[in-house]
Amino acid sequence: MKYLLLKHYRGGPTPAADWPPMDQWTPEEVDAHVQFMRDFAARLEETGEFVDTQALAPEGAFVRYDGDGRPPVTDGPFAETKDLIAGWYIIDVESWERAVELAGELSAAPGPGGEPIREWLEVRPFLGGAPATAE
Amino acid sequence: MNEPLLRELVPVVIGVLVRRGADFASAEDAVQEALIRALATWPDEMPRDPKGWLVAVGWRKFLDSARAEASRRGRELAVQTEPPAGPAPAADDTLRLFFLCAHPTLPQASAVALTLRAVGGLTTRQIAAAYLVPEATMAQRISRAKRRLAGLPLDRPGDLATVLRVLYLVFNEGYGGDVDLAAEAIRLARQLVALTDEPEVAGLLALMLLHHARRASRTGAGGRLVPLGEQDRSRWDTGMIREGVAVLQTALARDRLGEYQAQAAIAALHADARTAAETDWVQIVEWYDELLLLTGSPVVRLNRAVAVGEADGPRAGLAALADLDPALPRHTAVTAYLHERAGDLEQAAALYAEAARAATTMPERVHLTREAARVRQLLRP
After folding, report:
1. Are A41 and A51 in contact (CB under 8 A)?
2. What is d(CA A22, CA A30) in angstroms, rounded to the nearest whole number?
3. Which is deepest, B15, B191, B219, B222, by most CB within 10 Å?
């Protein structure tokens, strides 16, 4: 079963802790955080659960069709108050419980003082395709 | 199995098939199929005449698909099924393929893919993995590119500048999947140097070699970017630097300066310094002036400002930035660096953080965040 672990720049439930932005950590704290992320991906590959990870730039816009012969309408940049996706992991795991366990591990990435940052991650199951035996 | 040899033969064999009467698109498909067969069977049994094997298998694949196509259309097969023997000007064939695959009418991504397949001898799967797109997408990109080229004569001189830009793009992609694209670009550039008589081709090869020589020192623990000034210079590949400098000197002696030669000259001056402090920044600024005359590029002016900052002090560097568009990529990062050198640490930290938010790659974002963190640490009592 595939799950999306979504990381947000902002939005989601109230943060469990109020950390300063990363550029105000010490260089060693930044390194430790980055190393944790790399190790997490490497561990998922080892267990055969890794599918993909990508990060998104914070800019962009909403876009929609506005009729034939007219250019699409854009709505952007994103409002400061809106939910904003930062990136994701896609994992392929045995169960919902395993997906939650992994999201919990990822959320324990170290922050200032090596403390787990306890960031909220959104976990979403993928809708699969129709199995061959469903007819 | 000798994979480099196999890959070198790919453009040569495409040339043979085209001279026997196959059109480029079909010949290229047929040789790709022969290549995939070779990759599967040569490890067990290497043919005694690898080129002859590839020509025979490729030609058979071509005839099969040409017959299928002819019968589908109810027509006679137009090409001779018995290939004429004849001299094989293989070098010219490969050069023509370089020009055709990097034809100026092609979108850059297509030119890159087609060059890697038809001249580089990579499989569609390898190219797709290197550029992180599905194999079917890459196959489609390549066949659309070939359709676009249909009917173009294979024997016209092409646009060398486009070929060089394509190779430079491949080089900058670095590692992708199981293919070392930087090494592949160097291999192709070497080939092109042997096939042409243009100092700019040698300039590009020199530039690639001089950058590639520093590759091991460019990333540190945890994959983090290590800027030039902090690199462990004992890890630079001195043999490759010597070769790059020699290639560059021969090119410069021709007295036909171009942008790749000028960029290589700057890289050579960096390579020449045993420590960052020994860097000859005054000469580097002079080369940036040359490069600016050749290109007029704002990116060059941005990099020149860094060199000016080192040669004449950070205030001079900031002054050199003055009339550049702040929206230019890396402008904020460069400004941050010059402010740090000038001792404006508060401003430098804020600018590094701003540059990190605007960074377009993950390693760059991490690097700039870390720079902001480092400068803020200096500010703490």
Report:
1. no
2. 7
3. B15
Q: Record the pTM.
A: 0.89
- In contact, B186 and B208? CB cutoff 8 Å: yes
Which residues does A81 contact at the CB level (< 8 Å), separation at least 6? none
Instruction: Kindly give the residue spans of alpha helices, DSSP state H, lying in A5-127.
Output: 27-46, 96-107
Answer yes or no: are the C-beta atoms of A1 and A49 closer than 8 Å. Answer: no
In B, which residues are within 8 Å of A111 by CB distance? none
Total of domains in chain A = 1
Q: CA B171 → CA B97, B270, B316, B320, distances in Å?
A: 19, 19, 33, 30
Range of the domain at B212: 197-220+228-266
**Contact flag A58-B372 (C-beta cutoff 8 Å):** no
Q: Do B360 and A34 touch (CB under 8 A)?
A: no
Q: What is the interface pTM, i.e. ipTM, of the complex?
A: 0.89
Is B24 part of any domain? Answer: yes
Q: Which residues face A75 on adjacent strands?
A: A62
Q: Give the model confidence (pLDDT) of B306-359 as tens digits.
A: 999 999 999 999 999 988 999 998 999 999 999 999 999 999 999 999 999 999
* Count of other CB atoms within 10 angstroms of residue A123: 17
- In the numeric block, the tokens 């005694």 are attached to B48
What CATH number did the domain enclosing A22 receive?
3.30.70.1060
Closest CA to A23 of B356, B132, B159, B117: B356
Q: Minimal Cα–Cα distance from B338 to chain A, Å?
A: 18
Smallest Cβ–Cβ distance between A27 and the set B353, B360, B374 belongs to B374
